């Protein structure tokens, strides 16, 4: 280690010193205001994820991927559809809001098609048909 030669210290001494410095930095960092986290749930991005997980479940023969895709799709269907069957764009802190955009419908429909092709659960295909009607009517 070049640092050991430059400061004429052993590697163990340098490691100990670095640990002390790191601890001091973490203590100072804890006092700062933490940056804002963007933790909202977006239908369009989750539609892409559902499609990827469903395809991954088939490609790798891994039911865990299918379960994750189903869990995500079921959440969106339970929490992010209005009473008329239209999608909301985002969900945060228990509140779904902002009417869905074309991307939300297109990506979520794609995800549900991939999920149906993985699980053969007919309710996903029926939902695709309903959402596609909304997409064609409004976009």
Alpha plus pi helix count: 6
Distance between the termini: 63 Å
Helical content band: 55-70%
Q: Walk across the major sheet and give the strand order.
A: 1-2-3
**Proportion of residues in β-strands:** 5-15%
Overall mean pLDDT stands at: 94
Radius of gyration: 24 Å
The residue ranges in which pLDDT falls below 50 over 5 or more consecutive positions are none
Q: Structural class, please?
A: mainly alpha
Main sheet characteristics: 3 strands, antiparallel
* Count of discrete domains: 2
The shape is elongated
How would you characterize this protein structure?
The chain is mostly helical and 139 residues long. The chain folds into two domains: 1-34, no CATH class; 41-138, no CATH class. Helix content is 69%, strand content 9%. The protein contains six helices and three strands, in the order ααβααββαα. Strands 1-2-3 form a three-stranded antiparallel beta sheet. The longest helix has 20 residues, at 11-30. The model has no long low-confidence stretch (mean pLDDT 94).
Secondary structure blueprint with pairings:
Elements: H1 2-7, H2 11-30, E1 41-42, H3 43-60, H4 63-79, E2 88-92, E3 95-99, H5 102-119, H6 122-138
Antiparallel strand pairs: 1-2, 2-3
Helix pairs in contact: 3-4, 3-5, 4-5, 5-6
């Amino acid at each position: 280690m070049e640092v050991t030669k430059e400061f004429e210290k052993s590697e163990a001494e340098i490691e100990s010193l670095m640990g002390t410095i790191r601890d001091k930095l973490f203590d100072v960092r804890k006092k700062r205001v933490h940056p804002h986290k963007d933790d909202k749930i977006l239908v369009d991005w989750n539609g892409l994820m559902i499609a990827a997980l469903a395809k991954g479940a088939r490609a790798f023969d891994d039911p865990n991927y299918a379960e994750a895709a189903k869990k995500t799709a079921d959440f969106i269907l339970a929490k992010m559809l209005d009473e008329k069957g239209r999608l909301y764009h985002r969900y945060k802190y228990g509140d779904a809001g902002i009417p869905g955009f074309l991307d939300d419908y297109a990506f979520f429909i794609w995800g549900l098609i991939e999920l149906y092709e993985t699980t053969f659960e007919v309710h996903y295909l029926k939902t695709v048909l309903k959402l596609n009607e909304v997409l064609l009517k409004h976009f």
